[in-house]
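User: My collaborator sent over this chain with a note saying "see what the structure looks like." That's all I know about it. Can you take a look?
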Amino acid sequence: MFTQGDIVQSKTGGPKMVVLQAGDITLTCARVDDADRKAIEVAADSVNPYHEEGDFGVC
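Assistant: Without extra context I'll predict from the sequence alone. Here is the result:
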């Protein structure tokens, strides 16, 4: 479902994360705002593809 490089976010909210490694059950991710790219392991079914809602970039 997810592949390396996808941007995801927890279904309950939180920061957006980039997928470092994708498995069927777990994903290894890192927060996109983390310069050190500290690995975070999350359940694949606990995240959704990231998308922004609203009129972003409009002044």
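A starting point for your reply to your collaborator: The radius of gyration is 12 Å.
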